[in-house]
Automatic annotation (TrEMBL):
Signal peptide: none annotated. It comes from Chitinophaga agri. It catalyses: an acyl phosphate + sn-glycerol 3-phosphate = a 1-acyl-sn-glycero-3-phosphate + phosphate. It is found in: Cell membrane. It is a multi-pass membrane protein. Keywords: Acyltransferase, Cell membrane, Lipid biosynthesis, Lipid metabolism, Membrane, Phospholipid biosynthesis, Phospholipid metabolism, Transferase, Transmembrane, Transmembrane helix. GO terms for molecular function: acyl-phosphate glycerol-3-phosphate acyltransferase activity. One of its GO terms (cellular component) is plasma membrane. This is Glycerol-3-phosphate acyltransferase. The gene is plsY.
């Protein structure tokens, strides 16, 4: 019963519609009516600029971190280091909590169930469970973003790097975590199909990270 309650709490945390509240509260508009129509960091970057986009991304990441940390409210999981079985169950439960938050982000109860794609919240999930893997994924994301200025492409590449890191670089032993990593990459690619087509056609929007005189003309 406690686990189910915490899963619901994780969903509520994920449901906080950061992009919607920022766009309405600060800019007087609903981000879902502009750009791609998604209430996430990528569309916020595209429509409202890097400052608003960075803030939304940070808060959406923290939603994943907070959801995963809920696992430690269960006494059974508080000291798992010496018990392999408990460690496995902890990781599985943390992934479940993180996925509940991602579900909340995609279908937020506080915003008529119209949210974003959950990439930043997924990253927060990984950051809370395995920080070094998350940092490597951030490196891939930032390198791609600095070279291309495509948030969508950077998200796709960093998500593909995730299972590669888990399976081959860090050789994560937890089977469910390995399956989860592969599923994340597939999910991100599938949810970015429109972005992929726009990238192929050359009409995907870039974020204005490095404005220069040519950009301003």
């Amino acid at each position: 019963m406690t686990e189910l309650l915490l899963l619901f709490c994780a969903y509520l945390i994920g449901s906080v519609p950061t992009a919607v509240w920022v766009s309405k509260g600060v800019f007087g508009m609903d981000i879902r009516e502009y750009g791609s129509g998604n209430a996430g960091a990528t569309n916020t970057f595209r429509v409202l600029g890097p400052k608003a986009g960075s803030f939304v991304m940070l808060v959406d990441m923290l939603k994943g971190v907070m959801a995963v940390r809920l696992a430690y409210l269960v006494g059974y999981y508080q000291n798992p280091e010496h018990l392999t079985e408990v460690t496995t169950q902890l990781v599985n439960f943390q992934i479940g909590l993180g996925l509940a938050a991602v579900l909340g982000h995609i279908f937020p109860i506080w915003a008529n169930f119209r949210g974003g794609k959950g990439i930043a919240t997924l990253f927060g999930l990984v950051l809370a469970i395995q920080p070094l893997v998350a940092i490597c994924c951030v490196g891939v994301f930032l390198l791609s973003l600095s070279l291309t200025r495509y948030v969508s492409l950077s998200s796709i590449l960093s998500s593909i790097a995730f299972p590669i890191l888990i399976l081959y670089i860090f050789n994560e032993p937890e089977v469910f975590y390995r399956i989860f990593a592969i599923a994340v990459a597939l999910m991100v690619v599938l949810t970015h199909q429109k972005n992929i087509f726009r990238l192929i056609n050359g009409n995907e929007s870039k974020v204005p990270l490095f404005r220069n005189r040519r950009d301003k003309k």
